Amino acid sequence: MPEAIILGSGTSNGVPSLGITYPPEFLANPKNHRTRSSLLLLGPTGNLLVDCAPELRLQVTGLGITDIESVVVTHAHADHIMGMDDLRSICMRTGKAMPVYTLAEHAAQIRQVFPYAFKDYPPGIVVPRFDLLEIPKRFEIGGMEILSFIVEHGTTRVIGLRVNNFAYITDVSRIPEEVEPLLEGLDYLVLDAVRYRPHPNHFNMVQALEAAARIGAKRTILTHLSDDYDHDVVDAGLPEGVTLAYDGMRLLI
Asked: In the chain, what are the domains?
């Protein structure tokens, strides 16, 4: 059975954030230490990485996982792509470019950020190699049937994914009406809920709970979390069937 691992559950600054002083009791809970948002899907025959957080190397090696078959980049904001250089060692081992599925506009930004990954070099110089591919609506990776769809993150288009009874929607301010039928019958919905205050480009807690109630997954897991959320305190007060994500959370899907 495929498994989803939430590698990172934090917002773009990570938690704890640089330059902020936190109460000792907040820092004492490992679930309040959040790397940038990303996901790993472990399939029967291969693994799919969703986004490349700046902490990618630490996220994946900390789990003892060595294989990544392909990558989906949901969008090209810094907290979702700046770990892509860490894929270099896998490219070195396989001798192949890493397939990276995304939208055309995000592929263009990846080329701008990592121009060296697409240049030729003399022997002995090793760089990551990315095979940038337009993401199809339906495709198979690692023995998993994957459905992709588009949500809105302010003015940015972001890729959402569904695998079996599991859906992943990070960085979202609006789920188009035509997408919601694709989210029926879920056991798990992982959904952006960046903070309590309204945000122009993300669901806040109220908006995330409204979307969760409308979609009706058996369990909604809120991610892309800022330091607004003291995990155990907030988790205890959430509606039934809703919980906060934490780094390393594993779900059988």
From this structure: 3-252 (3.60.15.10)
